[in-house]
Amino acid sequence: MLKMSHFIEKDDQERSIRVTQAPVLDVKQLRTSFFSSDGEVPAVDDISFSVHKGEVLGIVGESGCGKSVTSLSIMKLIPQPPGKIVGGEILLDGEDLVNASERRMREIRGNEVAMIFQEPMTSLNPLFTIGDQLVEGIKLHKKLKKKTASQQAVEMLKLVGLPRAEQIMKEYPHQLSGGMRQRVMIAMALSCHPRLLIADEPTTALDVTIQAQILSLMKDLNEKLDTAIIMITHDLGVVAEVCERVIVMYAGKIVEEATVEEIFKNPKHPYTQGLLQSVPDVREKKERLYSIPGNVPKPGSIKTGCRFAARCEFVHDRCMTESPPLYNVEKAEQHTVRCFLHESGGVINDRSAVGS
């Protein structure tokens, strides 16, 4: 298991001040579904969370848990058809993006909310230079002349630690390494100083050394620019390194939420505990790494009961027939869990409705 020394250190007083301020992003009971000839398939089902200025929030879970659908819903990039946001609110500084027009969303994307995708080569246009792509976004959103936008683009490349920024402006994506392309994507995402940055598995396609450099860069930029960040990942090492608070998702639901320190010291949901047991530890000699038995259920396949019941070692009859609400964890602040084992903490009613 990861050592506590790996956790990002944040001042408790600073964290408390942020909580009292209005969040940059406030997601309320969001539901996103996909439709086929077989009917509606819920991919994100009644989730609620918020992100404050300067905060780094991690969303963690296995593939198929709804993490990326959540991020695409925030950006309103769900392909329609077959997908659709069918309920809830996505409030960006109080403005509901669910009801925003496509014209308004084009103003918001890249300017007020930016996103970094997993594979930079699929996000960068191979036919245009790095400079052309950076400058275009700055000109579009900031209404600057080309010369001024070019100067700002060079400064952003320098900010993300790229040497010879002026030369890179003239190069094409295929001429750069994977790590350099991801730095370009970060520069592009931050070039208009967005209020919120969504990073969807930003280091997965990179080798371990480059991963560490990118995570260090993102921590540094978060401190310098005070931008709110949502870090989507399946890697708990990334969560420990960068995030302050973490949401654990399973089969479209939030099953646990707490500070990173609390999640690692005191995990409550059996799924969270299983994820932590799966983290390799170089101090332990094991012939075989632990893995949670079974697989994430297909969206919409579970109609009743707890969605983790089929994989849970603590399952009992109630889990098969009732869907647990979110409970407060006793003797812990800002720690909630969706599990009947912790119902003594009391149901929380202000963030999430009970649902299957």
UniProtKB/TrEMBL annotation:
Protein's cellular compartments: Cell membrane
UniProt xrefs under SUPFAM superfamilies: P-loop containing nucleoside triphosphate hydrolases
One GO CC term on file: plasma membrane
UniProt keyword Transport, yes or no: yes
Pfam families: ABC_tran, oligo_HPY
Residue ranges of every copy of the ABC transporter domain listed in the record: 25-276
Gene3D superfamilies, alphabetized: P-loop containing nucleotide triphosphate hydrolases
Keywords: ATP-binding, Cell membrane, Membrane, Nucleotide-binding, Transport
One annotated GO molecular function: ATP binding
Membrane-protein topology: Peripheral membrane protein
InterPro entries per UniProt: AAA+_ATPase, ABC_Ni/Peptide_Import, ABC_transporter-like_ATP-bd, ABC_transporter-like_CS, Oligopep_ABC_C, P-loop_NTPase
BP GO annotations: peptide transport
PANTHER family given in the database record: DIPEPTIDE TRANSPORT ATP-BINDING PROTEIN DPPD (PTHR43297:SF2), OLIGOPEPTIDE TRANSPORT ATP-BINDING PROTEIN APPD (PTHR43297)
Entry similarity comment: Belongs to the ABC transporter superfamily.
Name assigned to this protein: Peptide/nickel transport system ATP-binding protein
